[in-house]
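Objective 1b. Sequence-to-structure analysis of SDR family oxidoreductase.
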Amino acid sequence: MGDLSGRTAIVVGASRGLGHGIATALAQAGAPVVAVSRTPAEFPDTGASPIRHEIADAGDPRVAADLIDRHHPEVVVLVAGAVPHMRPLQQQTWETFSANWETDVRIAFHWLREALLTPLPQGSRVVVFSSGAALNADGSPLSGGYAGAKATQRYIAAYAQGEARGAGLGITFTAVLPRFAPSTGVGRAGVEAYAARAGLEVEDFLRHHMPLLTPEIAGKAVVDLVRADAGGVVPAYVLNGNGLHALS
């Protein structure tokens, strides 16, 4: 996978934040990119492969099947998800509490299921963006079911890897767990809520999480991960401002 030219990549959740940075970086690396989002997006002229935009609801199982059938990707990156309702448990409703289960987990389930059923070509890579919140001992107490939903995405990626291995499909499934990325919608909401809970200004709170993750760093990390030899790829990585770190 070192040369990405001609290897189509679908990036789900590409209109903003980490997804936008990942779509841009893959295109700059030579991959024809299909950027999937519910809202229109603009991308820079990468000087390499064009970025084709598909406006669709990635949580609809028909969308996963249709886009995989039409574009025949060898790389699928799932970044899309709901911005959690940042309130303590007693100020949540079931609808706000379960938002990330109904969006993030649903997307991972449908797309990984379709990647196995189609299946994607031998040597394909599927990267599922979970969250570093899934590693916290106390979860993410101000974001409802967010931490649990993101942990489940990691499990789903592992389940898919087991099924692919057992069937000899040659597809690599990987979970990436990003830490705070304050320039993104989800990241900014979390930073503001937890800074207020700690009685800190946002800038003071962020000093404890340096170096900060950006869409550009995420893009480079995914390109490096997709290019890496499959035999050296581990099931899950933490992603922060210093790049990827393998999880045992």
